[in-house]
Amino acid sequence: MLEIKNLHVAVAGKEILKGLTLSISAGQVHAIMGPNGSGKSTLSYVLAGRAGYEITQGTIRYNDEDLNALAPEERAAKGVFLAMQYPVEIPGVTTLNFLKTALNAQRRARGESALDAMSVLKLVRKKAGVLKISEEMLKRALNVGFSGGEKKRLEILQMALFEPKLAILDETDSGLDIDALKLVAEGVNALRAPDRAMLVITHYQRLLEYIVPDRIHVLAGGRIVAEGGKELAHELEAKGYEHIVGKAA
Amino acid sequence: MSAAPDTKKQVAEIGEKYKYGFVTDIEMERAPKGLNEDTVKYISAKKGEPDWMLAWRLGAFARWKEMREPNWARVHYQKIDYQNAYYYAAPKNTPLKQSLDEVDPKLLETYKKLGIPLHEQMALAGVAVDAVFDSVSVATTFKAKLNEAGVIFCPISEAIRDYPDMVKKYLGTVVPVTDNFFATLNSAVFSDGTFVYVPKGVRCPMELSTYFRINASETGQFERTLIIADEGSYVSYLEGCTAPKRDENQLHAAVVELVALEGAEIKYSTVQNWYPGDENGLGGIYNFVTKRGDCRGDRSKISWTQVETGSAITWKYPSCILRGDDTVGEFYSIAIANNFQQADTGTKMIHLGRNTRSRIISKGISAGRANNTYRGLVSVHPKASNARNYTQCDSLLIGGKCGAHTVPYIEARNPTAKIEHEATTSKIAEDQLFYCLQRGIGQEEAVALIVNGFCKEVLQQLPMEFAVEAQKLVGISLEGSVG
User: Fold this and answer.
1) pLDDT score of B20
2) What H or E segment, with its residue span, contains residue B436?
3) What are the chain B neighbours of A105 within 8 Å (beta carbons)?
4) Minimal CA–CA distance to B302: which of B356, B346, B355?
5) CA–CA separation, B126 vs B130, rounded Å?
6) Is A76 close to B440, i.e. CB distance below 8 A?
7) pLDDT over threshold 50, residue A195
8) What residue of A is the nearest CA neighbor of B453?
9) Interface check A162 vs B, CB under 8 A
10) Which residues in chain B are closer than 8 Å to A84, comparing Cβ atoms?
């Protein structure tokens, strides 16, 4: 589903990713772990198509298409979803209205009919219960005054609503207490599906106790320096990044 | 590079953007070009006005000749040649119609393009429309139902003939003939407009609405509106404006006067999308308007809501004179300026009575190379004890070449006055846009969404059917402002 080869990415002229290679098949959950400044967020933004992240070398193939040729909103319509580390606030726009606008924009781009407000509300209600998202929260302006946990839960709600093919979760665990973390992880696990791939980006192995990955990649200095099964997370936890990164270098 | 196809494409695109830019081909009857006493007499004669009205106009004209065009606003334009314009234009052969069936089908077609099918509105929306086509009111609907309630809703030319005492009593009492250059000009040459009277204790059974539209080229539109809400009454009035595209600039200098007697409430909403000019700043309407409401009786209330997206230049300060005790004045405004548009708009809240309250919420949005100025005055007079004002001015910038300016004037001459002023300036952040894009919302739709959110407090003040139109308008007027 996703095939990244020798990817070099520069931000403001500075090279952050330096030859990253990675592939994920449908149905799999991969984790990317790495120390601060290793290029984890850069990878998530470049996959989503954020302006300012320039590919200087290498390729990203997504379902046999050149991902870089697509605008961010086209990628979204084709099933690329990024749960953000810092979801943004949009004052005056209710959460429900935002969900409806986004869902219908994606549907229209795929040639599907737009849903009316009532149908969207029904759909949202169905998905919101598991994540303990109240109607009251849906009426509030998008992310305005939301707690860290509420923001992250809303990201997962959107993931459930849009049913992406490739979901990238950027530091979804950051700023969450253990209860919130469990809730979010349950939401994510419920979305594991044979036709869906997930890329879970995290600094700590804590999240991976709840979302158990098929494969772990360690990112350091803009490159994958180590790979392994879920047990790699424990090794990292016990010995630290320094150990693994040092060994690779 | 082949220039010709490019130009063609550009022209086509511009046409796309201003969807009201069509011209209806109807034979027009005009006053001779230029402005002198004869022009004033011509207009008055065309309207079949009584002598007192002509005398009033001539008095205004004499004063106007002595006045100078104001230059304190933050707007720039070529000097207007007042002698090189027509001051009266009317579709030929249109005595007042008894029913819509008698109206020129072409005219009705124009309204359809504007999205106000009269028949449909009559049936569905329950809105009475007094449609001003250039200068003459051609169709007045729902008269019967309003008559029943005792509400008078008619062209002002008709009111001058049929209700002279009422017009004499109130005309020019809120905006005096000599108030300012443009108001005085309007007093001399106003061609038509709307008159509303709501009797004591009557709650007007429907929203009243007038669509203004400038059609003929090089004509100014000088409409005059007078609304009187008698004791304990309520009326909500909606005004929508559009104008076709033309290369030359057109002048629009309207005067609106509102009078609220004891315990009365007037809600006045405007959606203005006059032609703003093209991407290079060519053409567009000069919108120099004087709007003022007088809370003459105790416990009366006047509320202005405006959505200003059009015009090359907007110079407009809908104001409230809080004369009675315990009166309330409100001003809710959205002003959008894109490309080369200039908007200098705001309000004046004049606190004269005791326990008077005013509230100002202004949302200014600038994009392209546009400049948007909020200019407001809150004045508390010595006798206005316990006056309260709350002002909130928020500016949103899109792109790096536009400007937002806030110019609040505050005069407090009573020590019990409480005046609050809050102002913010923000930009549409790159991370907000990216968030929307990532969720599949395209750039233009994202900007419209964010801006509508920014304007929400004001949009909520509009009547339902207008709010939807206004939201769409916000999106349309900012097309092409990002990226």
Assistant:
1) 59
2) helix B430-438
3) 439-442, 445
4) B356
5) 13
6) yes
7) yes
8) A92
9) yes
10) 435, 438
Q: What are phi and psi of A22, to 5 degrees?
A: -165, 140
The nearest CA of chain B is from the CA of A241 a distance in Å of: 30
AA identity, residue B195? F
pLDDT value at residue A106: 97
- Reference B393, options B379, B380, B376, B368; nearest CA is B376
Phi, psi of B252 (to 5 degrees): -130, 115
To the nearest whole Å, the CA of A45 is away from the closest chain B CA by: 10
| Token pair recorded at residue B358 | 């005013």
Average pLDDT, chain A: 92
Nearest CA in chain A to B458: A92
Q: Which chain A residues are Cβ-neighbours of B430 within 8 angstroms? A: 51
Query: Please, are residues B283 and B249 in contact by the beta-carbon 8 Å criterion?
Result: yes
Per CB-CB distance under 8 Å, the chain B contacts of A88 are: 429, 431-432, 435
Top residue of B396, B441, B459, B472 to mutate, by most chain A CBs within 10 Å, is B441
DSSP β-bridge partners for residue B86:
B219
pLDDT at B58 over 80: yes
Band of residue A78 on the pLDDT scale cut at 50, 70, 90? very high
Helix (H) or strand (E) run with residue B51 in it:
helix B51-66
- Interface A-B: count of C-beta contacts within 8 A: 75
Q: What are phi and psi of B370, to 5 degrees?
A: -80, 160
Say whether A91 and B439 touch across the interface (CB within 8 A).
no
Residue B148's DSSP bridge partners are none
pLDDT at res. A233: 84
The Cα–Cα gap between B64 and B365 comes to 34
| Whether A77 contacts chain B with CB within 8 A | yes
Q: Which CA distances in Å does B418 have to A76, B329, B367, B423? A: 51, 15, 34, 17
Residue pLDDT, tens place only, A199-211: 999 988 889 989 9
CA separation, residue B241 to residues A98, B209, B478 (Å): 30, 11, 18
B439 and A102 within 8 Å at the Cβ level: the answer is yes
Furthest C-alpha separation in chain A: 57
pLDDT digit string, tens, across residues A196-246: 999 999 988 889 989 999 999 999 999 999 999 988 888 888 888 877 776
**Is some CB atom of chain B closer than 8 A to the CB atom of A158?**
yes
**What six digits make up the tokens of B254?**
């309207």
Provide the pLDDT for residue A169. 96
Query: For residues B142 and A146, what is the distance between their CA atoms, to the nearest angstrom?
Result: 49
Structure tokens at B60: 């205004």
> Best interface-test mutation with B: which of A86, A101, A140, A144 has the largest number of B CBs within 10 A?
A101
Taking the CA atoms of A175, A179, A185 and A186 in sequence, report the sign of the dihedral they define: negative
